[in-house]
Design brief:
By secondary structure, the protein is mostly beta strands. The chain has one domain (about 1-15, about 35-85). Helices cover about 0% and strands about 20% of the residues. It has no helices and 2 strands. The protein has strands at about 40-50, 50-60. Strands 1-2 form a two-stranded antiparallel sheet. The chain is elongated and about 70 Å long. The mean pLDDT is about 75.
Length: about 90
């Protein structure tokens, strides 16, 4: 597709419905959408205290706090059959 956006990542014209009662030839999870940027971080420090150890750990997830509003891939939810397009 010349202009790919998150909502229009796949070209629906590239897909065809199999004959009734037949399975298609595409495997599961073979479609990939646009990449998502996420930044996670962890810092830890281990202190040796006599016969034991003490570990302090800090974790942060999604540091930029950037939401992905259209990550549901609405275009993949339902592929129409030929009869539904008319």
């Amino acid at each position: 597709m010349p202009e790919q956006t998150v909502d229009h990542w796949l070209n629906p014209a590239a897909f065809a419905s199999p004959a009734p009662g037949k399975y298609g030839n595409a495997g599961r999870f073979n479609l990939k959408g646009p990449g998502v940027f996420q930044l996670d971080m962890a810092l830890s420090r281990t202190f040796v205290i006599r016969e034991g150890k003490l570990q302090l750990r800090v974790e942060a997830f999604n540091l930029p706090n950037h939401p992905e509003y259209t990550r549901g891939y609405s275009q993949q939810r339902k592929l129409r059959t030929d009869s539904e397009r008319h």
